[in-house]
Amino acid sequence: MHDRTLTEHLEFLISQRDQDEATILAHALRTGIETLYREALIEGYLLGKVPRDVMMKELDPAQLEEIEYQRDALRRDVEWGLRGG
Predict the structure, then answer these.
(1) Does 18 fall in a domain?
(2) 45 exposed, middle or buried (CB, 10 Å; 0-12, 13-18, 19+)?
(3) Residue 1 domain-assigned?
(4) Is 7 exposed, middle or buried (0-12, 13-18, 19+ CB in 10 A)?
(5) How many domains does the chain contain in total?
(6) Which of 1, 18, 44, 79 fits a disulfide with 50 by CB distance 3.0 to 4.6 angstroms?
């Protein structure tokens, strides 16, 4: 898959989805921006720049719970490691 060019990927998507190039590119742009937004939102939250109430509006409760669980687990692992495990 890594040997294929973006053009080849686009041609494949056009043929598989029976949609025109503009529709595929618009969907790709929307999906990419949504992904980048979510990543920036999570990073901002973990760095204390985005409040929890904003996160609760943007993500469903299960997603926010998973992010907080992973953050807390990482903190516990680091503390454990610093104590000499």
Answers:
(1) yes
(2) buried
(3) no
(4) exposed
(5) 1
(6) 44
pLDDT (average), residues 55-81: 96
Do 14 and 20 contact (CB within 8 A), yes or no? yes
What is residue 3's predicted lDDT score, i.e. its pLDDT?
74
Look at residues 19, 78, 2, 43 and name the one whose alpha carbon lies nearest to residue 10. Answer: 19
**What amino acid is encoded at 36 in this protein?**
L
Tokens of 58: 């943007």
Q: What is the pLDDT of residues 6-54, one digit of tens each?
A: 999 999 999 999 999 999 999 999 999 999 999 999 999 999 999 999 9
